[in-house]
Amino acid sequence: MDKSNDGEVGHLMVDEIKLKSDLAFNCKNNEVIGFVANSGTIDLRGEFASLLANNESPTDGKSKEPAVYANQWRFRSLFNLTHNSEFFFNSGSLSSSELLRQFNHVVACYELSGVKIMGLVLDAGGPNAGLLKLLRKGEKVEGSWPRDSCLYSLNPMDPTRKIYHHHRSTHNQKSMRNSLHRSQTGGTRDFHRFTKHNRAVGFGWPEVADIYRRDEKRAKSGLVALTRMTMQAALLDQWSQMNVVFSKTPFQVTSIVEMMVHISQRLGCVNEFWKAKGKVSGDEAYEEMKLVACFEVIQQAVRPETEAGIQREILTLEYLLVIHRIFIIRLMNSKYNLNKNNIDEEEKRMMKIMEYFEEWMQEKEVYKKSQTKVGDEGERKRKREGESKSEKMRRNGRFRLGGVTFWRI
To answer: 124-131 long-range contacts, Cβ below 8 Å, gap at least 24?
Structure first.
């Protein structure tokens, strides 16, 4: 391996994989190589030595379960060299405390061999979220731009150095796509935003699927398709939900521009849109700013009387544009170059982009309260409709006694 002046430097990656069979075995010699005990990971050498010596098993009396998952740790160096480091088998009951033990063990092994661990990359799944909480010592992550203290933990082998935590961009981007996909009729999400005219409008996946339908219609009429949207990317199933290419497709610039043209035609501002769009320059930063300018043209064309269907498309378009700027231009772009010359400017730009989610979180609270108020009023109305005459009198401050009506003062 290439080495820096201070020795090898890199970060750890961890992910859980499902084993193909209920027992982990070496297919070259058909030997079982993985078991899990209730007490934690078994010492296989001690286990088999005891069995061969006819002694009691170290885990005798404890139930043994077949390993169905393996937690895989990998190392990636500063020079982009990677290798597998360790596997930890489990029966499907991996806990955050066990992950913390693995983390400390793997970090210690590298640090003792002279390799400096500077980062940890993982997805946001259940035990991983618990691990990060333990590493943060319970500190809560708040807002769209968390405090620096939420982003790292101290190196267990050298507390003067920090290990920074990174969520896997591929998982994050798919999660954002899946959330949008669930916001539809029969879905488990209900995306709403307030428009500039203070109107609560729902939006979600149907507007994305329409991009594919418009492109399909163009193709059937003999015109060239404008986007890369396919049926698999628009009408998701369990397999296509896992495909990274399909996950990125709705957020590609071709999908966004197609939707912008469609909306600007409906709003009657297509000339202003093309003026802002101009010719493709090849400069990614400039093209990004042009997309933002095009979206502003569309926003300015919205009127209070603009129909809800167009408002939904605009809110969906804004979501696509934000995810495009975060993931397609930056975090999932192998050509994206972050260096000491542009890092401050990029931080400001990312903070500006993340304001979208900050504003949305604030709107969600307002929307929740408005829905609760509407629900409460409806419930009160239903109760009033079912009241008897005497109950209505009591609610209005009156009651009858001996055939005489009294008013409460």
So the answer is: 124/167, 124/171, 124/172, 124/175, 125/16, 127/16, 127/94, 127/95, 127/96, 127/98, 127/99, 128/14, 128/96, 128/99, 129/96, 130/95, 130/96, 130/97, 130/99, 131/96, 131/99, 131/100, 131/103
* Residues 6+ positions from 132 with CB-CB distance below 8 Å: 122, 165
**Do 125 and 96 meet the contact criterion of CB atoms below 8 Å apart?**
no
pLDDT at 390 > cutoff 70 = no
Number of Cβ within 10 Å of residue 19's Cβ equals: 15
Q: Give dist(CA 251, CA 173) in Å, integer.
A: 10
In whole angstroms, what is the distance from residue 12 CA to residue 82 CA? 10
String of DSSP letters for 64-127: EEE--EEEEEEEEETTS-EEEEEEEEESS---HHHHHHHHHHHHHHHHHTTPEEEEEEE---HH
Where would I find the H helices in 136-228? Answer: 169-182, 205-220
In degrees to the nearest 10, what's the CA dihedral of 333, 339, 345, 350? 40
Terminal alpha carbon distance of the chain: 89
Sign of CA pseudo-dihedral 61, 63, 66, 69? negative
Distances, alpha carbon 16 to alpha carbons 71, 103, 195, 350, in Å: 4, 13, 42, 30
pLDDT tens string 25-37: 565 666 766 654 4
Interatomic CA distance for residues 77 and 75, integer angstroms: 7
Task: Give the other-Cβ count within 10 Å of 229's Cβ.
Answer: 25
Specify the DSSP class assigned to residue 240: G
| 397 phi and psi angles, rounded to 5 deg | 85, 20
Residue in this structure with the two tokens 């290439």, named with its chain if needed: 2
Measured over the CA atoms of residue 114, residue 115, residue 118 and residue 123, the dihedral's sign is negative
pTM of the model: 0.77
As a whole number, mean pLDDT of residues 223-251 equals 93
